[in-house]
Amino acid sequence: MRPLLLRDNVSDCTALENHMVTTRKTALKEWVVTLAPDTAAGPARTALAKAGLQVGQVLEEIGVITGRGAANLGAALRRVKGVTDVAEQAAIDIGPPDTPVS
Amino acid sequence: MAKRPNSPTSSSKAQAGVTSTAASVEEMLLAAQTRGTDSMETGRFIVTFKDGAVEEGIKALRAQSMRTADARDFSDQAVLMDTLGDADALVFPEVGAALIGASAAQSRSMSVASEFSSDDAMQIIEPEYFVFPEGAQDYLRGFLRATETIARDLGDADAAVPDAEEEVRALGHTWGLNACRVPASVRNGLGIKVAVLDTGFAIGHPDFAGRVITSNSFVGQPVQDLHGHGTHCIGTALGPQAPTGGTPRYGIAFRGSIFVGKVLSNAGGSVGGSVLAGMNWAIASGCQVISLSLGGAGPVQAAYTAAGQAALRRGLLIVAAAGNGNGAPTGFPANSPTIMAVASLDNNLRPSSFSNKGKIEIAAPGRDVFSAAPMPRRYATMSGTSMATPHVAGCAALWAQTSPSLRGTALWSRLRASARVLPFPAGQVGAGLVQAP
Q1: The domain that contains B183 carries what CATH number?
Q2: Which of A29, A97, B200, B398 has an alpha carbon within 20 to 30 A of A17's alpha carbon?
Q3: What residue numbers bound the domain in which B64 lies?
Q4: Does residue B286 belong to the interface with chain A, where contact is any CB pair within 8 Å?
């Protein structure tokens, strides 16, 4: 049975490659913004969005706001009032089921 | 020439149901768990053909109006399982067998009781079973090692000598519970909320019948644990006093309130800020003990430190696994100054070879730990600082129950002050082996 996904057409390959290059140039990062204790989350959220962050989660209890933004957005986010730290999201992986040591 | 299967549409797949040839392992496991039985059967059947009778067997299946798919239709006979659509049977000609969907078999009165005559192409019908990498023998490993340890300790004047009563109790519990002196404790965690942020929980597990469980998923998948890690950790921290079937006790705070935060997917990975979101939820829910058997190699992350700080300010305590980098520096989130890092010990109370070092607050049993697993498996034995961490969480819940003042930093201090001192550097075992009140 011939798989349906591969394309033999050369012009289709070029279009796909162009699309991938464009996506890479505008690749967004996952940002994690930490606020100083007792910073009001609402105003901070507004200011971060204004600075260019596509706000994802506003975690009020712990004073953290996550979101997506341009790869070079870090400096602008750090300048927002109440922000004490800006970092990229660090993935966590414990491995698949039955990993020998976890 | 074998018949080509119909191309699948979303409606035909829905009709095919959860025990069709096209069902995914995940779908079948979910269905088996909600059935809640001990059975390892998937619901489907395997028909074995007599030697050299594959083509006749296929004809026989078609004669019963079964839509058959054939591995020979695929390149290198590598079947793409999700293209099977509504095929009733999938033939493996090299093996001389066929997989039959549950409803296809039922509607034709095929079962394991079916008998075949000598000129039938089919030889036997058997149930299809789930298989897992670890065998049923592994749960004995933890207990056998416990008896070895006791025998060795009785001959060693320097080690703590268990009296006869303790020895009997030891064999009725995991070695880890024994080492933490849990069996002798009068506490059970009643009134204390313990959050375990992990791969979810095996809701419906017979050992947890009647327990109140509050759960939330942060990964876009149901809380039902298809990985196993989360269930194992919850078992250690909060498992029952008397597990079903006379199984020895493996859990600590057996009356603690269970809060399940699914922050890792069934494949074991975080999804976006799922871990932070889970911590936020556990803190908002007022969980006095929050257990994280997860992490990554790398420096302190400010967001986790902020979470730990928020927890302590509210009188809540976060404990996390130091990591399994074979002596590498403690990873995040355990390396945050506001989170307790837990190292792992072997059953001879030596630091486990895989356990990270450096910033360590306390140590607990983490080698060959027997605990709960999703059904139908029911139990499993696992190793890691992931297994040590819920020992601390469970003991923390028992301590928290002893006094309303033992919260947050006070609870942190009490756990360390009451730990059993071990002859190893603090960078490996912190204050020592955690002890129950």
Answers
A1: 3.40.50.200
A2: A29
A3: 15-129
A4: no
